[in-house]
Amino acid sequence: MKAVVFESYGQPEVLKIREIEKPDVPDDAVLVRVRASSINVAEWYSMTGLLIGRILSRELFKPKDTRLGADFAGVVEAVGKNITDFKRGDEVFGGRSGAYAEYVSVKNAVALKPANVTMEEAASVPTAGITALQGLRDHGKIQPGQKVLIHGASGGVGSFAIQIAKAFGAEVTAVCSPQNVEHARRLGADHVIDYTKEDFTRNGQQYDLLLNVNGGRSWSEYKRALKPNATFVLIGAPKTPVVGPIGLLIKTRLATLRASQKFVFFIAQFNRADMQVLKELIESGKVKPFVEKAYPMTRIADAMTHLGKGHAQGKIVVTIQSSNTKVP
Ligand SMILES: NC(=O)c1ccc[n+]([C@@H]2O[C@H](COP(=O)([O-])OP(=O)(O)OC[C@H]3O[C@@H](n4cnc5c(N)ncnc54)[C@H](OP(=O)(O)O)[C@@H]3O)[C@@H](O)[C@H]2O)c1
Question: Quick check: pTM over 0.90?
Fold first, then answer.
């Protein structure tokens, strides 16, 4: 099968399409023919080789795992002996490493695709949707009527977070750049702050829950926007090549040791139950995936470059071509 691989760290030009072995189908897994995948910041960091990641994994000069991708939507081609809840031909979506490929073999994080979205839309959901869901529900303990602020609200995670927070009954304020103000409003944000015109840490408003998806402000600034018993959930930070979000994580963790507010950082976990929750939110119309652009797999480098600029609107998707489909 064809798959995207990177044999050295670097900019998107290191991404190549190679012919590699199709995965087996273990007894407790399903083999999915991938129709679409989507791009996440984690893949950007894997490709460029965040220095701290290289040191921790002892892969300083060359990656051991040359495969990329995490999100997929596609069609079940075969099921393992022990699988009873999927059958050949089912349309599914989920998370599996190495998803920029024509096939993935997946055990846990897979669910039936929401019936009302395309393969591209479904492929945009897993990482970003699960992160937004777990950030708000499990770590932010979101409650109806709470005032929630989402900093970095218009990209992959933020676009899901606005809609999921609304689905939980919160009053949502989205912080984004001027070109994304309308996008955040269309997703349902009650208030939208253009960060080039207004500083949300200085406008006198305070929130019960602040989801920091991609902001890099200091704790003393964030604190001004938080009620005394608020929760601050750190999801990510603007990209840096050496330590990535770890710098902001350490600084904020230390600064919040004596704070009255609760500070949480987490790494999202794929699981079937949450894929099912997202499917239901999408089928109920409460959440609608937003794909800014879909690139064919042959243009994976352009797709990665688009994400790397840091101002994606919703998600960037990669359409995976099957071996017998001609690339347009
Ligand atoms: N903890 C986890 O498990 C987990 C999981 C997934 C992702 N993440 C992290 O979450 C972050 C966001 O991921 P994503 O997929 O949403 O990325 P994305 O699609 O690239 O979106 C990032 C958004 O951040 C906004 N932004 C850029 N610079 C900003 C700044 N200086 N201040 C405020 N906002 C800014 C941009 O919106 P504007 O153009 O409107 O500024 C952009 O739309 C990344 O750091 C990623 O590593 C963490």
Answer: yes
